[in-house]
DNA sequence: GGCCGACCTGA
DNA sequence: CAGGTCGGC
């Protein structure tokens, strides 16, 4: 399977053509938002398996597609910087507005690795300032919505830490792990691909360059899609993808998936489970990561292991794989522990359990041991 | 209702 | 075997 090229690309319109006018922009214009690193850590949040299409394209610079635009994001201790690229169609015409020539004197230096080139646009294509402001406002709102910045993460961490000492010790090194609010269609079809699969292969299937919009329901529902995706290495999941798209098109309105945002958690979960390739785990991922169900706790083998190892949770002990009942019991166990945002808390521990972050976790554990030693010493001194 | 094997693929 | 799900006992 090719992992270097865009696996979905042939199903959707490229936003950026790789051979010419790549990331076509005018004068660079970074904009920013006040945002503490304790509220958002781009590196943790964008690479912990919620979304598979963000890439670190430069040191601390993350590039991906969201809301029909290509974004590059980076951050300092208290500021989130963002940069969007004009969208073009396949004929190379710029569809979005051209960028204004306003530049940040002290903005972060944009660095890219290889694949991305920048073409300058003539400055005369600037649009009136009023429209620019309106447009800028819309992009700021897109970003706030995607990262759910209205949710105060520091407060949640405090609550979870009070209820759960293990969380508290881990959380010190993993602040700012935040739930994204993704597009439901992209989220659903991405997570159908995760079953019985590894992360590296999932990324190979879903990530790619050049940057592109996620394929639409109509495209995915086409009968030719299964064989196409099989040829690209999607395996038996190819059929699930095509069939799920077909079923949604045949039995629901086009906005059915989006409309699940406004129905109760268990109802949304049940609705999703009617789709081929969607069991409890995938349904919970979609509920949590795109349908505003903060209490959904996706229980995979990692989370099950965390429950047993770090919480002495005996639910389902001895079983080789999760039954639906055990799955629900473990979810309830965590919901009772963490409360209505249990799914958000779960993602922090899930993140801390990833192999690539073990060095970070080791630091937290080390601090914890030191703390324990100090407490013990104090006790010893007292007695 | 719960248990078990099959399912694509490649690190 | 891997961040499951499905279909058959």
UniProtKB/TrEMBL annotation:
Root EC class: lyase
Single GO cellular component term: nucleus
Enzyme Commission number(s): 4.2.99.18
GO biological process: base-excision repair, AP site formation; nucleotide-excision repair
Domain of life: Eukaryota
Domain HhH-GPD per the UniProt entry, residue ranges: 193-347
UniProt xrefs under InterPro entries: DNA_glycosylase, HhH-GPD_domain, HhH_base_excis_C, OGG_N, Oxidative_DNA_repair_enzyme
GO MF: 8-oxo-7,8-dihydroguanine DNA N-glycosylase activity; class I DNA-(apurinic or apyrimidinic site) endonuclease activity; damaged DNA binding
Catalytic activity: 2'-deoxyribonucleotide-(2'-deoxyribose 5'-phosphate)-2'-deoxyribonucleotide-DNA = a 3'-end 2'-deoxyribonucleotide-(2,3-dehydro-2,3-deoxyribose 5'-phosphate)-DNA + a 5'-end 5'-phospho-2'-deoxyribonucleoside-DNA + H(+)
This protein's UniProt keywords: DNA damage, DNA repair, Glycosidase, Hydrolase, Lyase, Multifunctional enzyme, Nucleus
SMART domains with a match to the protein in the record: ENDO3c
Keyword Nucleus: yes
Subcellular location: Nucleus
Segment forming the signal sequence: none
Disordered: annotated segments: 117-137
Pfam families: HhH-GPD, OGG_N
Record family assignment: Belongs to the type-1 OGG1 family.
The protein's name: N-glycosylase/DNA lyase
Species name: Conger conger
């Amino acid at each position: 399977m090719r992992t270097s090229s865009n696996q979905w690309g042939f199903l959707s319109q490229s936003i950026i053509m790789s051979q010419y006018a790549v990331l076509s922009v005018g004068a660079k214009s970074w904009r920013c938002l006040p945002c503490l690193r304790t509220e958002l850590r781009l590196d943790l949040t964008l690479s912990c398996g919620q979304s598979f299409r963000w890439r670190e394209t430069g040191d601390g610079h993350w590039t991906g597609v969201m809301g029909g635009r290509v974004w590059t994001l980076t951050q300092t201790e208290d500021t989130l910087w963002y940069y969007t690229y004009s969208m073009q169609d396949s004929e190379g015409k710029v569809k979005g507005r051209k960028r204004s020539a306003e530049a940040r004197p002290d903005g972060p230096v944009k660095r890219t690795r290889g694949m991305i080139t920048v073409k300058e646009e003539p400055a005369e294509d600037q649009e009136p300032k009023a429209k620019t402001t309106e447009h800028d406002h819309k992009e700021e709102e897109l970003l706030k919505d995607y990262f759910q910045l209205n949710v105060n993460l520091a407060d949640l961490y405090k609550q979870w830490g009070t209820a759960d000492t293990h969380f508290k010790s881990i959380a010190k090194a993993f602040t700012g792990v935040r739930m994204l609010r993704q597009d439901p269609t992209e989220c659903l079809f991405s997570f159908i691909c995760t079953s019985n699969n590894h992360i590296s292969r999932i990324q190979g299937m879903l990530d790619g360059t050049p940057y592109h919009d996620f394929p639409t329901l109509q495209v995915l529902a086409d009968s030719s899609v299964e064989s196409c995706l099989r040829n690209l290495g999607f395996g038996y999941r190819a059929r699930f993808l095509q069939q799920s798209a077909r079923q949604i098109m045949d039995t629901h309105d086009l906005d059915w998936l989006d409309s699940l945002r406004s129905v109760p958690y268990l109802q949304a979960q049940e609705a999703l489970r009617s789709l081929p390739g969607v069991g409890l785990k995938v349904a919970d991922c979609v509920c949590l990561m795109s349908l505003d169900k903060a209490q959904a706790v996706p229980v995979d083998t990692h989370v099950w292991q965390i429950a047993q190892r770090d919480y002495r949770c005996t639910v389902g002990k001895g079983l080789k794989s999760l039954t639906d009942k055990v799955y629900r019991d473990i979810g309830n166990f965590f919901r009772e522990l963490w409360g209505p945002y249990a799914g958000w808390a779960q993602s922090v521990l899930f993140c801390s359990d990833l192999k690539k972050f073990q060095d970070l976790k080791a630091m937290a554990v080390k601090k914890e041991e030191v703390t324990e030693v100090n407490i013990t010493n104090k006790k010893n001194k007292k007695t």
